[in-house]
Design a protein that fits this description.
Order of helices and strands: HHHEEEHEEEEH
Oligomer: single chain
Strand order of the largest sheet: 1-2-3-7-6-5-4
Structural class: alpha+beta
Number of helices: 5
Strand content: 25-35%
Distance between the termini: 88 Å
Length: about 180
């Protein structure tokens, strides 16, 4: 092949390639774009109330359960936190709702952390009560949620002036009242 013919063949091949690319860019594809790895099930309703779990028990009910005169909402996200103060001194309250969690996992985690773990029931549902060994003012209670997974309440009286397990159990009971 002569130099001129080779050059003409290369130009023709380049033109065909560019034409193919342009044709591909001009076509449309049905559907909606989504990030790689994203799965769309059509069930977006579960995300509309993403942080409503933090309102499962009112601030007033939480304050009453821990005998607080004042309560302030803190972080809301995967867990919910409040700070309160009252006759028992400062108190920290934490709520979690793990939609795919289990009481067995909560119990195992508490045991791995060296907590004193006891089985209990709240409104006839199996519950787990956990006490850190070096903090008599703290206690956590986890129970099967009204829908799926587990809910948990942690109460920590910094002055250790009241029974934190009683307060956490009361809050868990109030949460379960949602299902009535």
């Amino acid at each position: 092949m002569s130099g001129g013919r080779r050059r003409a063949a290369e130009v023709t091949a380049a033109i065909v390639s560019v034409a193919g690319l342009i044709a591909g860019c001009g076509s449309s594809i049905d559907g909606s774009a989504r990030p790689e790895g994203a799965s769309v099930t059509g069930d977006t309703e579960r995300f509309t109330a993403l942080l409503e779990e933090c309102d499962a028990v009112t601030d007033e009910q939480i304050a009453e359960a821990v005998a607080a005169d004042a309560i302030e909402r803190g972080f809301f996200g995967a867990i919910c936190r409040w700070d309160a103060v009252g006759a028992n001194g400062p108190v920290k309250i934490t709520f979690n709702w793990f939609e795919t969690g289990s009481l067995d996992t909560e119990k195992e985690t508490g045991e791995e952390l060296g907590y004193k773990v006891e089985s209990s029931t709240i409104q006839g549902r199996r519950a787990v009560v956990m006490r850190p060994p070096n903090d008599p003012g703290a206690c956590g209670v986890s129970v099967g949620s009204p829908s799926s997974g587990v809910v948990g309440w942690w109460v920590q009286f910094t002055a250790a002036a009241a029974d934190p397990c009683e307060a956490a159990s009361t809050l868990a009971d109030l949460t379960l009242n949602l299902s009535s």
